[in-house]
Write a structure and sequence with these properties.
With 366 residues, this protein is α/β, with parallel strands linked by helices. It has helices spanning 3-20, 81-93, 103-122, 182-200, 231-246, 276-288, 307-311, 340-363, and strands at residues 25-26, 127-133, 140-148, 155-161, 207-213, 252-259, 268-271, 295-302, 316-320. The termini are far apart. The chain binds zinc ion. Residues 28-29, 165, 184, 217, 329 line the site of zinc ion.
């Protein structure tokens, strides 16, 4: 299934599905199955293994009721943050393709990991590098994580994926092309790196864990979330759950995932698998900052890195610009199609969300 066709099919499915009272289920990266929900997880009933972090997505929620809003104090990102994040995206794109699954992506993948690590360490943060080999795929992946201590130990995860889609050696010729992943990959990595020092100086209520996940993209061209994608988030959630059980890590109370946050044409959809309450916080933050025209104009589920968190009961929200994204998984996902303003917009909204998420999921939980 070709990407463009798939995405068109997805949109068509969304439209006709909405009429029929069903929803299209899509992934951020691979294509959409074009079917109704329940067809992407191989028919397995998620209830059979409720505690295993997986890509088997939950039932999507209702569209966010945009008339319901929390009164949030807008928190503005420092002036120039968007410009600096854009410069970082340029640096990252300069590393070339960045994936571990094939040789063509490995040099860039290695350079980016070193870059992320060095930038976080320069802030005085300790970086945890988790490297493992997937036993089935025989691919060695790496997640990076760094904790920004808050007043409380309970954690809020702020995550993105660092890998780019592999566009080599696919059987269909149209899936093989130059791809730099400026938005789908670099933009969110760049933004998290720029947010790190802001959060450090903001004395957050909850501990913020910045997580750079590997292997989000589907190895198959088409999105295959249950089996051949979301490797890093599944791994991360499993390890954290074990650490919590052993008492070696404080609980994760909520997760915020950023994916494709730098497009000139930024539109963060109302992502329907995300926890409803967190979507309300997100929408409220967008309105508080005056950025609502960039948010929730359209709604669709996207089985992204937040799904493994959801599958073990951790509230999670995905800030993703997939629905209607014309450059997604195409040669046009380049720096020219990013904008500093979009990165600044998302930074404002994330910074406005975080205190509200901490209040709701950490402070009130006590
Ligand atoms: Zn992608």
């Amino acid at each position: 299934m070709a990407t463009r066709t798939s995405r068109s099919a997805a949109l068509a499915t969304l439209l006709t599905g909405a009429l029929a009272g069903t929803l299209a289920a899509t992934g951020c990266f691979g294509a959409v199955s074009g079917g109704t929900l329940g067809t992407q997880d191989g028919g397995r009933d998620p209830a059979e293994r409720p505690q295993e972090p997986s890509g088997a997505h939950p039932e999507p929620g209702q569209h966010t009721d945009k008339s319901i809003r929390l009164e949030l104090e807008p928190v503005r990102a420092p002036a120039g943050l968007g410009e600096r994040a854009l410069a970082r995206a340029e640096t990252i794109v300069g590393f070339g393709p960045r994936y571990a699954s094939k040789e063509q992506g490995q040099a860039g993948w290695t350079r980016q990991l070193s870059y992320i690590e060095a930038e976080l360490e320069a802030l005085g943060l300790t970086v945890e590098r988790d490297t493992w080999t997937d036993r089935k795929e025989l691919i060695t992946f790496t997640n990076l994580a760094a904790r920004i201590p808050g007043k409380r130990k309970e954690r809020i995860v702020l995550a993105c994926h660092h890998d780019t889609k592999c566009t080599r050696d696919h059987p269909e010729p149209q899936h093989n092309f130059e791809f730099v992943g400026a938005n789908d990959g670099a933009s969110a990595v760049a933004l998290l790196l720029e947010l790190a020092p802001v959060l450090q100086h903001g004395e957050p209520e909850a501990t913020i864990e910045l997580v750079f996940l590997d292997g989000e993209e589907s190895l198959d061209w088409a999105w295959n979330d249950a089996a051949r994608a979301l490797f890093g988030s599944k791994r991360y959630v499993t390890r954290q759950r074990d650490a919590e059980v052993l008492g070696t890590a404080a609980p994760i109370r909520a997760a915020i995932v950023l994916d494709m946050v730098g497009s000139k044409y930024l539109h963060i959809q109302d992502e329907l698998y995300s926890t409803a309450r967190l979507r309300t916080v997100l929408w409220s933050a967008a309105v508080a900052c005056g950025h609502e025209h960039r948010f929730f104009q359209r709604a669709e589920g996207a089985a992204d890195d937040h799904v493994p968190f959801l599958s073990v009961g951790i509230p999670a929200v995905d800030l993703i610009d997939l629905n209607g994204n014309a450059t997604w998984h195409t040669p046009a996902d380049t720096l020219e199609n990013l904008s500093a303003e979009s990165l600044q917009t998302v930074a404002d909204v994330v910074l406005t969300m975080l205190p509200a998420v901490a209040e709701e999921y950490v402070v009130k939980a006590h």
